[in-house]
Amino acid sequence: MSERIPHWLEKQSEVNPHHIALESPDGGKKTFGELRQESRQMAQALMKSGVQKGDHIAFLSDNDLNYPVFIHAISYIGAVVVLLNTRLTSAEISYQLKDAHVKRLFISNSYEVKAEKASKNLNTAVQKVSELPQELADEYDLKRELALDEVYTMMYTSGTTGKPKAVMHTYGNHWFSAIASSLNLGLRHDDKWLMCLPLFHVGGFSVLMKSVIYGMTIHLMEKFEPSLVNKALITEGVSHVSVVTVMLQKLLEDLDGKRYPDHLKCMLLGGGPVPVHLLEQTADRNVPVFQTYGMTETSSQIATLSPESAFTKIGSAGKALSIAELWIDNDDEKQPGEIIVRGPMVSKGYYNHPHQRDAYLRTGDIGYKDEDGFLYVVDRVKDVIISGGENVYPAEIESVLSDIPGIREAGVTGRKDERWGEVPVAFLVSESPGTLEAEEVLDFCKERLGKYKLPAQLHWVEELPRNASNKVLRRQLFSLLDQED
After folding, report:
1. What is the full DSSP assignment across 380-446?
2. Regarding beta strands 80-83 and 56-60, do their DSSP bridges make them parallel or antiparallel, or are they unpaired?
3. Taking Cα atoms as reference points, which of 209, 200, 149, 155 lies closest to residue 179?
4. Which residues of 317-335 are buried (b: 16+ CB within 10 A; e: fewer)?
5. Which one-letter DSSP state was computed for residue 451?
6. AMP-binding enzyme C-terminal domain spans which residues (predicted)?
7. Which of 30, 98, 154, 389 could form a disulfide with 166 if both were Cys (CB 3.0 to 4.6 A apart)?
8. Among residues 191, 199, 251, which one has the least CA distance to residue 221?
9. Is residue 444 part of a domain?
10. Which 8-state DSSP code applies to residue 165?
């Protein structure tokens, strides 16, 4: 029999009914008591419209204060929610609706056209959340307990290679992820987490789970705007914020030499390898950046740098969280190998894609540990360039290129080569177009990279292709050249 816990929103409404659960920059607020009431009301409305326990339903919406209401409503019913990326095309959404066997698609008003196109020729009903019945009596019994091994959410992997797959997350995955994070970062009664990542992404959704499990306030923003985020970090008493590399770069530029107040305790930095020069810059300015490592399959972070190591292990993603294990697939863990993880926050698998699952997860990421056991993430296995028999890691080259004054961003991928098999090719975004010559860039690289790692070509582009979590999509870099033709 599955381990059960009291429904986490019921518990927070009981112990912290007047504590602010959600707030927005426009002044909107919901207490945990109000969030419980609205979520239960929406659960009644969803059941009135036909949603039942075990149903697969999908949700397509931007960040707003009603997003958590819908998410918690699903938990009161016992249905499974597929969180859809708002940046996908109708065709991509259609694939996910079919693959996940979605019965109903619920949307915010702005996605009506996209949803209708996506559901065409599918047995999937579309309904606006704003048109659900209002002010219903308590006709239906709602769940008061959560079974930790029941599937709660499904999120599709970004699909950078092949078709995306739906990662199944249980209530227990989300619960243990939140608990492990608090044991590493600590927890205070006045913590407030600013969230500007999309809530359909595991990095954003995990903070919703932290909020209801900890009893913590979320300052929820619709999207990332550097000036607005910095203003909130300075004036709204924010203690934590989740960012990826490109966001951190833009925040520092907008900050323009100023410093963050002492109440900012943690800038949680995820999304893959980070240029060391950027981390050194944050250390010089005393910005509390904690690099973290995780993925959709691990329900967000599974390793995070601890506060006491933030300035002594720059570039490290720390060690596995207290209830997780992490090791390197190499007899010598100080040498690069695939990162393997295990723990109760690791997903039980992919929906509709049967496969042999061991107790551990091969992540597809390359990393190594230093002499103290701290993890350093090098790159994705599938992104490694093999040139003349040597492994070339795009992230290493990108880090060097990003150190060059005048280069804002860099993306590196491999190109087939008759002599070497593959060679690295760099795509660069300039601070001021036309001010840097290729020769200057290569001269800088020659002093810091082995000859076989030097980019065979340089391409100047306006921006790099990224997914919803702002990761560079290296396999789409060459498509930028097609756009120029």
Report:
1. EGGG-EEETTEEE-HHHHHHHHHTSTTEEEEEEEEEEETTTEEEEEEEEEESSTTS--HHHHHHHHH
2. parallel
3. 209
4. bbbbbeebebbbeeeebee
5. G
6. 396-471
7. 154
8. 199
9. yes
10. -
DSSP state string for 263-278: T--EEEEESS---HHH
**Where are the strands (E) in 129-208, listed by range?**
145-147, 151-156, 166-170, 192-195
Residues 142 and 179 in one domain: no
User: Which residue in the block uniquely carries the two structure tokens 């790099």?
Assistant: 464
Nearest to 52 by CA among 114, 126, 127, 141: 141
Rounded to whole angstroms, how far apart are CA atoms 444 and 438?
A: 10
DSSP-derived secondary structure letter, 93: H
Contact indicator for 172, 145 with CB cutoff of 8 Å: no
CATH code: domain of residue 43: 3.40.50.12780
Residue 110 tokens, joined = 């702005």
Residues 434-476 pLDDT 10s: 788 999 999 999 988 888 999 999 999 999 998 776 788 888 8
pLDDT in tens, 289-331: 999 999 999 999 999 988 788 778 888 999 999 999 999 999 9
The reply to whether 230 falls in a domain is yes
What is this structure's pTM? 0.87
169: tokens are 């997350």
Looking at residue 407, which CATH number applies to its domain?
A: 3.30.300.30
CA distances from 285 to 108, 257, 279, 288 (A): 41, 8, 10, 9
Handedness of CA 428, 226, 473, 368 (dihedral sign): positive
Q: Which residues contact 360 (CB under 8 A, 6 or more apart)?
A: 325, 340, 341, 342, 346
Last residue of some domain: 347, 382, 417?
382
One domain, residues 287 and 343:
yes
Q: Assess contact for 94 and 163: CB atoms under 8 A.
A: no
Overall number of domains in the chain: 3
Residues 148 and 91: their CA atoms lie apart, in Å, by 34
Structure tokens at 456: 């065979």
Within a domain: 154: no
Output the CA angle 415-471-469, nearest 5 degrees.
155
Same domain, 409 and 363: no
Collapsed DSSP state (helix, strand, coil) of residue 203: helix
Q: Are residues 207 and 344 in the same domain?
A: yes
Pairing of strands 337-342, 385-387: unpaired
